[in-house]
């Protein structure tokens, strides 16, 4: 059965999925935005786990969810928007692809994404939603183990952008 792709509006820290993806920074430090919210809800154990990962970085960092309802946190460092000529689109696609591949390799079935890079990192939200939708659709075709992907949108505008992006990337048949 093909995976379900859902869009929800709200706080990613409340979602009881196998993994939520964190829009992390390179230091894997708590910081602001969605990352700060995830760390506040998970508790200090998450920052401690991140600190040891940052000291000896695995290729694709992943932690337990600690006090979150999600079982795991996958940390993805999105690109800082610099005008679009610095490979930002590919880097953003890599975040979605790598997180899904890691989830699939770990046997996880449900995964929720925030709109990576569209806050403090300044990536235009409409382009980012399109890249997210296209990359998730492409990757899911190769990853039948994943049953559900959630785009967790912070606000109505982001929700509508993801809805439009999913419609624009829907398979034709
Ligand atoms: P980045 O540094 O990658 O831009 P931000 O955390 O600043 O990351 O923003 C990424 C997106 O996450 C933005 O669209 C922001 O509105 C959204 N966001 C902020 N808090 C939450 C939250 N608690 N749940 C889901 N999304 C959130």
Describe the structure in your own words.
- The chain is built from 5 helices and 6 strands; from the N terminus they run E-E-H-H-E-E-H-E-H-E-H.
- It has 173 residues and is of the alpha/beta class.
- The chain has a domain of 121 residues: Leucine Aminopeptidase, subunit E, domain 1, CATH 3.40.220.
- Strands 1-6-5-2-4-3 form a 6-stranded mixed sheet, sandwiched between helices.
- Helix 3 packs parallel to helix 4 and helix 4 packs across helix 5.
- The model has no long low-confidence stretch (mean pLDDT 94).
- The site of adenosine-5'-diphosphate has 20 residues, from helix 1.
- This is RNase III inhibitor.
List the helices and strands and how they pair.
Layout: E1 4-9, E2 19-24, H1 33-42, H2 44-55, E3 62-64, E4 72-77, H3 88-105, E5 110-113, H4 125-142, E6 148-153, H5 156-168
Parallel strand pairs: 1-6, 2-4, 2-5, 5-6
Antiparallel strand pairs: 3-4
Helix pairs in contact: 3-4, 4-5
Bound molecules: adenosine-5'-diphosphate (ADP).
CATH homologous superfamily assignment of the domain at 4-23 and 69-169? Leucine Aminopeptidase, subunit E, domain 1
Q: CATH class of the domain at 4-23 and 69-169, please?
A: Alpha Beta
Strand content: 15-25%
| H/I helix tally | 5
Form type: globular
Q: Tell me the helix content.
A: 40-55%
* Biggest sheet statistics: 6 strands, mixed
Order of helices and strands: EEHHEEHEHEH
> Which secondary-structure class do the elements indicate?
alpha/beta
| Sequence stretches where pLDDT stays below 50 over 5 or more residues | none
For this structure, the quaternary state is single chain
Distance between the terminal alpha carbons, to the nearest Å? 17 Å
């Amino acid at each position: 059965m093909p995976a379900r792709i859902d869009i929800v509006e709200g706080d990613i820290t409340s979602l009881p999925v196998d993994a939520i993806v964190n829009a992390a920074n390179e230091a894997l430090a708590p910081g602001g935005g969605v990352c700060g919210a995830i760390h506040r809800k998970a508790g200090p154990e998450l920052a401690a786990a991140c600190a040891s990962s940052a000291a000896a970085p695995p290729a694709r960092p992943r932690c337990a969810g600690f006090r979150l309802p999600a079982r795991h946190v996958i940390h993805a460092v999105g690109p800082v928007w610099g005008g679009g000529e610095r490979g930002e689109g590919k880097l953003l696609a890599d975040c979605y692809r790598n997180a899904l591949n890691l989830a699939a390799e770990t046997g996880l079935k449900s995964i929720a994404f925030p709109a990576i890079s569209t806050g403090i990192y300044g990536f235009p939200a409409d382009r980012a939603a399109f890249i997210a939708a296209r990359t998730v659709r492409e990757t899911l075709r190769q990853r039948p183990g994943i049953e559900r992907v959630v785009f967790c949108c912070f606000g109505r505008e982001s929700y509508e952008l993801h809805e439009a992006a999913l419609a624009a990337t829907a398979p034709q048949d």
